[in-house]
């Protein structure tokens, strides 16, 4: 759920029609600035040999990010659904501290101000900032280990999953009453998440307990869970 | 104490020497009031602030924007002791104006965007890093005397 009213959405779409053609430049510049201005964000890219603001990796990744932002504009009416897979990626695999989304949003705004000094008015800035905040919220929504019901419903069952469950998980596995049976299991939940599970056996559709759901079908193969 | 390299000092004084305070100040404050509307709570006596147009044409807002820039100027001229320079202003914002210090960061962000629009590509990532460091020190000094 976003807090974007129709006026905000219209403003974002209108402005983006103007800016879209420059999306790759914007992405490269924005990520470069994030790294230069907030060096702590480099920690997420430690696997690159060159994490300097001008590196090729940073440029390429900036394009990737901005392409996704551009795509999100087309999904502005339901960011939560539209960004489900990206949200899972950021929540379960990348584990980005959501505070960093705000920093990147600020850098994007700075680039837009530089590229469109006349068009990036205060009103457009406000609408775009709200959009980026809604985008960040949609990306971080799945951070809580009380997984959303929509993730449960997209669960698939792996026949090898039960064999790979650590022995110290509670047996039988706690269930959400509205989950499909047999209970789907997560390939990639960390053991620490499993251990902090609490159970609520209410039949409400809203999941209030920790559940074990698969990540998206494209998730990596079963990861041996540390004991 | 905050360390400033020669390059950082010249970047900051260089930017401020190019800024028209009468233009940038009002623009930055207006942007803050429009983008983060809860900041309007501090300007109840300023008259008509009911919409973006009203805010942009409000002479009290403009005058206050200029005042803020001149306040920043004091930090530029005393970069080695911003904390002491702003001690009184910090007390004022806390005891008299009752401004939530989170809002200093919002105004700083809007000022960054206004300056970026003015300087264009001259506002490189490295310049932005120095500028952001400077404003972070200012914001911290302004929040220092809150208790």
UniProtKB/TrEMBL annotation, chain A:
Pfam families: Globin (PF00042)
Record domain Globin: where: 3-144
Record's keyword annotation contains Heme: yes
Gene Ontology annotations for the cellular component aspect, listed alphabetically: blood microparticle; haptoglobin-hemoglobin complex; hemoglobin complex
Tree of life domain: Eukaryota
One MF annotation (Gene Ontology) recorded for this entry: organic acid binding
Gene3D superfamilies reported for this sequence: Globins (1.10.490.10)
SUPFAM superfamilies named in the record: Globin-like
Gene Ontology BP term (one): hydrogen peroxide catabolic process
UniProt KW keywords: Heme, Iron, Metal-binding, Oxygen transport, Transport
Family label: Belongs to the globin family.
Stated name of the protein: Globin domain-containing protein
Automatic annotation (TrEMBL), chain B:
Record-linked Gene3D superfamilies: Globins (1.10.490.10)
One of the protein's GO biological processes: hydrogen peroxide catabolic process
GO cellular component, one term: blood microparticle
PROSITE patterns attached to this UniProt entry: GLOBIN
Domain Globin: 3-147
UniProt-listed InterPro entries: Globin, Globin-like_sf, Globin/Proto, Hemoglobin_b, Hemoglobin_oxygen_transport
An annotated Gene Ontology molecular function: oxygen binding
Keywords from the UniProt entry: Heme, Iron, Metal-binding, Oxygen transport, Transport
Annotated family: Belongs to the globin family.
Identification of the protein by name: Globin domain-containing protein
Organism name: Knipowitschia caucasica (Caucasian dwarf goby)
Taxonomic path: Eukaryota, Metazoa, Chordata, Craniata, Vertebrata
């Amino acid at each position: 759920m976003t807090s974007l009213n129709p006026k905000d959405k219209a403003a974002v779409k209108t402005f983006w029609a103007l800016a879209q053609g420059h999306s790759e430049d914007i992405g490269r510049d924005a990520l470069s600035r994030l790294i230069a201005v907030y060096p702590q964000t480099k920690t997420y890219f430690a696997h690159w040999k060159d994490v300097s603001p001008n590196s090729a990796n940073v440029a390429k990744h900036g394009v990737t990010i901005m392409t996704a932002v551009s795509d999100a504009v087309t999904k502005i009416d339901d960011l939560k659904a539209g960004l489900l897979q990206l949200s899972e990626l950021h929540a379960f695999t990348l584990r980005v501290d959501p505070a960093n989304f705000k920093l990147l949003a600020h850098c994007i705004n700075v680039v837009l101000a530089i590229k469109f000094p006349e068009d990036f008015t205060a009103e457009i800035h406000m609408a775009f900032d709200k959009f980026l905040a809604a985008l960040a919220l949609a990306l971080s929504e799945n951070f809580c280990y009380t997984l959303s019901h929509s993730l449960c419903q997209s669960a698939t069952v792996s026949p090898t999953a039960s064999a790979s469950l650590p022995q110290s998980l509670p047996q039988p596995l706690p269930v959400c009453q509205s989950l499909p049976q047999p209970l789907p299991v997560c390939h990639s939940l960390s053991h620490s998440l499993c251990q902090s599970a609490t159970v609520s056996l209410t039949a409400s559709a809203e999941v209030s307990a920790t559940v074990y759901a698969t990540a998206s079908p494209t998730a990596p193969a079963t990861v041996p869970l540390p004991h | 104490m905050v360390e400033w390299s020669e390059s950082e000092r010249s970047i900051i004084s260089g930017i401020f020497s190019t800024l028209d305070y009468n233009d940038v100040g009002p623009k930055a404050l207006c942007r803050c009031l429009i983008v983060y509307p809860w900041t309007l709570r501090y300007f109840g006596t300023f008259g008509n602030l009911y919409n973006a147009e009203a805010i942009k044409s409000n002479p009290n807002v403009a005058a206050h924007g200029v005042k803020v820039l001149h306040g920043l100027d004091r930090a530029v001229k005393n970069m080695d002791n911003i904390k002491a320079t702003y001690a009184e202003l910090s007390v004022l914002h806390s005891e008299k104006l009752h401004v939530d210090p989170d809002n200093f960061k919002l105004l700083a962000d809007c000022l960054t965007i206004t300056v970026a629009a003015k300087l264009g590509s001259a506002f490189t990532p490295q310049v932005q890093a120095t500028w952001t460091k400077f404003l972070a020190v200012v914001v911290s000094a302004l929040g220092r005397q809150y208790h």
